Amino acid sequence: MLAFATAALLFPALLFSATVKRPVKAPSATPSARKPAPYTKPASEQAIANRWMQSLTLREKVAQLIVIPFNGHPLNTKTREYRRFVNLTEREHVGGLVLINVPNQRPGGRADPMEVANFLNRMQSLAKVPLLVAGDFERGVSMRVDSTTVFPHAMAFTAAGDASLERKEGEITAKEARALGFHWIFFPDADVNNNPDNPIINIRSFGENPDDVSGMVKAFIEGAHSAPANARVLVTAKHFPGHGDTAQDTHYGLATIGGDRARLEKVEWAPFRVAIQSGVDSVMSAHLAVPAVESPELPATLSPKLLNGILRDEMGFKGVIVTDAMQMGGIAQGFPNGEASVRALLAGADVLLMPPDPVAAINAIMAALRTGRLTAKRIDQSVARVLAAKARVGLGSKKLVDLDAVHEVLNSPESNAVAQQVADRAVTLVRNENRMLPLQAAQSTAFFLLAEGRNGVEGQAMALEIRKRAGSATVIQVDATMSDADLLAAVQHAGDAQQIVVAAFASVAAFRGNVPLGGGLPQLVQSLIALKKPVALVALGNPYLLRAFPEVAAYLTGYSTVPPSEVAAVKALFGEIPIAGKLPVTIPGFAKYGDGIALPAQSPK
């Protein structure tokens, strides 16, 4: 359009000049016409960070080390909650925000993307220094925000056996995050999940092998950092010094990681060293004790030996150390809000994530500065790292989101194809007695889909895909909140079936404390097994579930509860895709690390 308009304007002038000769006008003698405006070199990232630093009072510097939570749901500007955000952003000058989910707010608890982007723009417009906005995007932005690319959990990538797919997840996550106004991704998970009873890491980890975990951690960092400049993000290796070999959810209380120093070096710390070598921007500390290094009562988040001694001095990490959420039981139960914040800074942390009372934390740190327990120099060290990180992601030149461009980036067909490819390739067949799978009599199969809760979306995609392929098959959806009587009644629907498929959703979540099936679902499965018909158990989530139901004839696992994994499981059950996944973990007593029965896809009938 621009070229056409220019030609239309010039064409009459060209005709006129061909018929009328006019003297050539001398160029203007004004100084602006004689020479172009001097070129102004863009300010360097360091110069931008220095300018921000000089604009801050000591109290404002302290506030820059605080990151507060928001949930992305609509907020009227007259509400107390909204005014609280205004106060913390505009008056206290907190350094950043982190998105958390609200159960039952939307399907899966995720936020609406446009609400999130709008809210972040409003908060950024109030901030004296741009806010650094973070998200726990462990399976892409979809972990927290709706209408984004839904990736499977981390363990699925290792089962699929292709680090290039993890690289793609990193790049896609970076682009989608920045489109919404996020700059800081709390991923990759560098925990080595070698404890089958770990109640909080499990499928969030890439597996039990340190080399596997290290390779995938490296791949995600490379992928996220390969995004274009306008999608530059910070990435975070977590949860140092390693949360994989624990049996306690640190949301409840202080966990402990065992083993001597040699074991920690070989297993838990190997992925963190690789992350640092790969240029990871930040490391998140865990609220767990490490008796081999520190007092068994002191969380790593508050340990100078672990943060300054091991992470900084021995591993050479120069980036931002961020605490895990300071409101978690693993730290909040043992230390008051303000004291925990002061001790975290003394230990070497730079950013205090979600202190229960942000103003109380700021006040406690200021009190420690007045008494000399903390020094202004120590605060400046952390503030310098935070401000440099803000400059590095371009917040010195642009802090607002282009709302019109959001949906040009999110949830693209190409990105979703990558996610589905991961889910398809991750499916792992651990047991297949009498060649029960792929199903040969799908129409006479009873499918039981066991969801964790009543208000979620688990099982919906799977039910739809089964009915597309076997319309007359029995499909029963139940959940852990149902009464024993209702679950027993559901068993009756398997009466005429020749075989049974049980798809069990069992995922990790904060404050659950364990990862088995909930409510009366274990008894439901036992009742189905007691019918003496072949039962195939499909674990959508916790891959160790076979230990609870060793009598099943077939066992298939997909390592994730997301819809792409549901679709992949159905395709595998019906023989539409080859099954080639390999276990990234050991199922004690049943299967070794690396096991997996390979099956080709069946030819279409």
Total number of distinct structural domains: 2
Which parts are unreliable, with pLDDT below 50 for 5 consecutive residues or more? 1-34, 510-514
Shape: globular
Which structural class best describes the helix and strand composition? alpha/beta
Strand content: 5-15%
| Separation, N- and C-terminal Cα atoms | 53 Å
* CATH homolog superfamily of the largest domain: Glycoside hydrolase, family 3, N-terminal domain
Rounded to the nearest angstrom, the radius of gyration is: 28 Å
What portion of residues is helical?
25-40%
Alpha plus pi helix count: 22
How many strand segments? Answer: 16
**What is the CATH architecture term of the largest domain?**
Alpha-Beta Barrel
Mean pLDDT across every amino acid position: 90
Largest sheet: 8 strands, parallel
Per the CATH scheme, the topology name of the largest domain is: TIM Barrel
Query: Which strand order does the major sheet show?
Result: 9-7-5-4-3-2-1-10
CATH C-level category of the largest domain: Alpha Beta
Task: Walk me through the structure.
- The structure is a single chain.
- Helix content is 39%, strand content 12%.
- The chain has 605 residues and is α/β, with parallel strands linked by helices.
- The chain has two domains: 67-413, TIM Barrel; 427-573, Glycoside hydrolase family 3 C-terminal domain (Rossmann fold).
- An eight-stranded parallel beta sheet has the order 9-7-5-4-3-2-1-10.
- It starts with a helix and ends in a 32-residue tail after the last helix.
- The relative contact order is 0.11.
- The model is unreliable at 1-34 and 510-514 (pLDDT under 50).
